[in-house]
Amino acid sequence: MSLPGWARPNTVDVDILNIELGTRSGSIIEWTPLGSYTQAEIMYHWYLPGTISFELKPGHRLIPRLRALRRKAIHIRVIRNGIPWTGRLMTHNTSGNPRNPTIRFTGVDYKFWLQRGLAWVNSMFPPEFQIGLTGKQDVMFGNPDFVLKYFGTKTWVRTRRPICAAMPLHTVTSDYPNLASFNSLSSLLDLVGNAIEELAVISMRFTQLNDGFSLTRDRLDFGWKLDLWDGIGPSPKVFNATTLSQLQSILDVTSDNFLNFTNPNNYLGLTDPSSWGRMPRAGYVFDTIAKKDMRQVQWSTDGTQVLEMNYDSSHATATRAVVGGKAPEILNQVIEWGANFAIQLLLNAIAPGLGLGLVVGDLFDNIFFAYQQFIDYDLEAEIGIDDAFADIFADNTAAYSLDAYATAQGALKEHSGSEAIELTVQSGGADGRGMSFGVDDGSGRRYQLGDIHTFYDQGTTIEQYISSVTVTDKRDGRIVERPVLGEGNRIRGIYERLVVGQQNLASYSRGNSNSV
Asked: Under a CB-based contact definition with an 8 Å cutoff, are residues 368 and 335 in contact?
């Protein structure tokens, strides 16, 4: 017999974060529970490396082991309501009174791997000689999930790290065409245009993976994850490329073995086909994530679960972006040839028989087609052409190139204004019947990264997706969660701003050094 609402208890049992620490032992990771802590906080993020921090009391049994982290990989695992957080212990600090110090440890999740891999032009050649089929850059286009896994897999094979791309390949864009609406040529052209816009076109030249992926991610609004598999139990389904001999199907994504037509009996000495699609030892799994429409879930300040809120919105600062400064080399050559031909005809007409040769060198280089403009017409119309702020210079990327479109669209999005809400909520509510971060359990009260939710406050209704969640336990009662709906630079935490700032600085320096 269930109790009436007024008789239900208004508290539930206090839970803790089950933090585990792991070290590699052969082909598996062995785990040890952290046990008691004085406080702990975990941040899950849609695409940035998440973080963890915890404080231990003096005399904790694991302190000597955890302090020796300079030359030891200490893995961390937390599974919160079915959602894993896996990462590496990165820093330790002991401070204060030596008889009762504060002992603090921090870690970062394994999306950090994307900041420690450079996509070479050609992974089969040494760095002194780098040229590929597409020239000075490695270029790939197609579905974003495939393109990101293409570059990642080649990099991880070259560095011999056990990082695998999750299979099967899938789409990360969620806008599907309504075929019934195609009743004119313009509607069909819109379909083609939208299909092109949802493709990823990425070129790499010793580019950090995270930098190379970021423009496409920002433009198409998808996320990614990179989690540790401990080598215990069934392997996740992956594209197995942990050694060069298993680099079978990066270009041919229709098969798990690019050389299948010559290899049914392993004639070429490749790895046993029984290992295809599986991980041979503990390692890491990369996958992309699409948003999920969960707008039926509504957060409201009228209820009791929201303890605090931070609502931040900003106005659009630009609607037009210019990229360029350099024209594609082929256009420079065509213009130069045309100018030479015209001048030669003119000279021969004035002084026939003198054999005057070509006289134009690089006079016209980077004059024609050196710059390209992109306009967000929808945003400009919504604000009003009289009031919308106009131009920004996006980057000195070569105009009319593979990078120009993505660079301009990324800049337009960055300057299109933002709207983000950070909520502080009691996980599960006072009686456990509220919302909580976790895998869907059928209750309708769980949410995850990428879920599009509805927020209501004083007549304002907003639809935004969950971009990050911070879970905090200060051992003073129930666990507190801080979900962020949308993305706002000012709402980002200190660590997130630091990571983004370092990425931007690194991207700028590499762009200068690799500019040719």
From this structure: yes
> What's the distance, Cα to Cα, between the start and end of the chain in Å?
75
Buried b (16+ CB within 10 A) or exposed e, 438-463: beeeeeebbbbbbbbbbbeeeeeebe
Report helix, strand or coil for 223.
strand
pLDDT in tens, 49-96: 999 999 999 999 999 999 999 999 999 999 999 999 999 999 999 999
Give the SS3 label for residue 304.
coil
Per-residue burial over 71-81, b if 16 or more Cβ lie within 10 Å, else e, is eeebbbbbebb
Q: In terms of pTM, does the model score above 0.85?
A: no
Do 187 and 181 form a contact (C-beta atoms < 8 A)?
yes
Residue 186 token pair: 């313009």
Encode pLDDT of 15-47 as tens digits.
689 999 999 999 999 999 999 999 999 999 999
Contacts of 508 (CB under 8 A, 6+ apart): none
3-class DSSP assignment, residue 132:
strand
Query: What are the DSSP calls for 162-201, one per residue?
Result: -EEEESS----------GGG--SHHHHHHHHHHHHHTSEE
Say whether 30 sits in a helix, a strand or coil.
strand
Identify whether the C-beta of residue 111 lies closer than 8 Å to the C-beta of residue 226.
yes
- Alpha-helical regions (H) of 384-483: 402-414
Nearest-angstrom CA–CA distance, 281 and 168: 20
Return d(Cα 421, Cα 151) in angstroms, integer: 34
Residue among 128, 102, 99, 116 nearest 37 (CA): 102
Question: Cβ distance 49 to 482 under 8 Å?
Answer: no
The Cα–Cα gap between 79 and 490 comes to 29
